[in-house]
Amino acid sequence: MVRAGSPPQSSFQDVVQLFEQIADDLNLEEDVRLLLRMPYRELHIEVPVRMDNGSVRVFPGYRVQHNGARGPYKGGVRYHPQADLDEVRTLAALMTWKCALVDLPFGGAKGGVQCDPSAMSEDELNRLTRRYTQNIAHIIGVNRDIPAPDMGTNAQTMAWMMDAYGQLQGHTPGIVTGKPIALGGSYGREAATGRGACIMLRLLCKDLGREPAATSLAIQGYGNVGSWAARLAAQAGFRVAAVSNSSGGTYNGSGLDIPALDRHVQGGGRVGDFAGGDRISNDELLALPCDVLVPAAIGDVITDANCDSVRAPVIVEAANHPLSTAADEALTDRGVVILPDILANAGGVTVSYFEWTQNIQQFRWDEDRVNTELEHVLTQAYRAVRALAQEQKTTMRRAALRIAVARVAEAIRLRGFV
Ligand code: NAD
Q1: At 135, which helix (H) or strand (E)?
Q2: Is 257 helix (H, G, I), strand (E, B) or coil?
Q3: Confidence (pLDDT) at 2
Q4: How confident is residue 165, by pLDDT bands cut at 50, 70 and 90?
Q5: What is the CA radius of gyration of the chain?
Q6: Which residues lie below 8 Å from residue 154, measured CB to CB, with a gap of 6+?
């Protein structure tokens, strides 16, 4: 329990606190807890980059490997001005739980470079990515640790990473996932995280007796995850009433025309300037009286400072750690149904797993197969979480973590780590 008025905890403290609660629920032995409280390895590097104007800038970079009991470490790389060790640690721990929850043979890791990619040229980002890859190359590998895209990185970033790693080790497509299709990427990977969030939305709304056409959504973030979630939710018949990105948002109570919004954004327009909606701020989006709120941008956007203003009865956490523990507790007490991040955004790592297996087999699946397998994996995970939450009369977050922590603990014991 986080007491009102107490100083805010860091995200990693939030994650550890939740882990301790789950460890208590599971009666986990102290040796296993000790191993799971802190990451296995944390690498902090300085990444020097020659900028286009001839100057040199040095960016802090990180790769954190949280736990590898179930398989090679797996997790994205984030380029963001606020990417620091606490954030990367938090995300690495969430990856351990996420991979275990959807039963992928991976451990959890995360990487980050503290930079503002929107203020850097393509050439500068290429040089940054190559140097970052060289500096972490000794701890990654196809059977060791496999990076992927996250905020501020994309398929092009993964192509540069693969190339930089290949210069050291020979051509190794399985070293990263989320690559361009032309370089061994998987069909369906780009849309996979948004598709997964949309699969969860459909399953949850069905269980809650909500018809898509009568369900309005507010989606924060219109990057990879948010825009695919919006597109696919609109195609599935949901009413996407609001979306936003860091420049602001747009609202239309009758539902936004998502293909028209995409054309506007692809033409260089700002989301807030879209003619098919009214301009709103990010704070206003979070407080809209919609049926489902989908945070799909950065972490800690709903805290005890603003959770009282949230009016949606359902939250689908497409972003990682969008709610602080204090906000999570307050909203749960109010009866808000929260579908947790490790389930809501697991579609991305699931298709990353498919990409990795395709690379290892030097084989390619078509998009229908990828999407069918994705739906199967996520539906199974959702059903298990929902059933446990109902059986134990607990939240879906705690049920999801119980399943995940129990699986990782079992792997630790079987390997003889403790
Ligand atoms: P992205 O960089 O493609 O997009 C991020 C979006 O968030 C952009 O639209 C940006 O403008 C917006 N944004 C940034 N700061 C904001 C703010 N303060 N308020 C509102 N919007 C803001 O990143 P992404 O890959 O879509 O990742 C989004 C979230 O999903 C992250 O939390 C990430 O960890 C999580 N996630 C991503 C993947 C993946 O496959 N890309 C997988 C799992 C989880």
Answers
A1: helix 122-136
A2: coil
A3: 45
A4: very high
A5: 20
A6: 178, 224
- The pLDDT value recorded for residue 174 is 98
Q: What is the pLDDT of residue 9?
A: 82
Bridge partners of 316, per DSSP, are 339
For 166-214, what is each residue's pLDDT tens digit?
Answer: 999 999 999 999 999 999 999 999 999 999 999 999 999 999 999 999 9
Q: Which two tokens stand for residue 133?
A: 């890859």
Name the β-bridge partners of 242: 218, 251
More confident residue, 52 or 3: 52
Q: CA dihedral in degrees (86, 90, 91, 95; nearest 10)?
A: 150
- What pLDDT was estimated at residue 167? 97
Which tokens hold the place of 157? 């970033």
Q: Which residue has tokens 């929107």?
A: 118
**Is any atom of ligand 1 closer than 6 Å to the C-beta of 348?**
yes
Residue with tokens 């807030």: 272
Cβ contact 331:301 at 8 Å = no
State the residue for tokens 């199967």.
376
What is the 300 CA–ligand 1 centroid distance (Å)? 12
Strands 145-149 and 73-79: parallel
State the pLDDT confidence band at 74, using cuts at 50, 70 and 90.
very high
Which spans in 5-108 are helix H?
11-25, 30-37, 85-101
User: Residue 153's closest CA among 128, 181, 188?
Assistant: 128
277 lines ligand 1 (CB under 6 A): no
Q: Per-residue pLDDT tens for 331-367?
A: 999 999 999 999 999 999 999 999 999 999 999 999 9
Annotate 313-349 with DSSP letters as a single string: SEEE--SSS-B-HHHHHHHHHTT-EEE-HHHHTHHHH
Contact 295, 315 (CB under 8 A): yes
pLDDT at position 3: 43
**Ligand 1 pocket residue status of 344, Cβ below 6 Å:** no
Kind of pairing, strands 73-79 and 56-67? unpaired
Ligand 1 center–CA 393 separation, angstroms: 32
Question: Which of left, alpha, beta for 277 (phi over 0: left; psi -120 to 50: alpha)?
Answer: beta
Q: 297 CA distance to ligand 1 centroid (A)?
A: 4
DSSP code string of 146-204: EEEE-TT--HHHHHHHHHHHHHHHS--GGG-SS--GGGTPPTTHHHHHHHHHHHHHHHH
Question: Which pLDDT score, from 0 to 100, does residue 4 have?
Answer: 44
| pLDDT exceeds 70 at position 6 | no
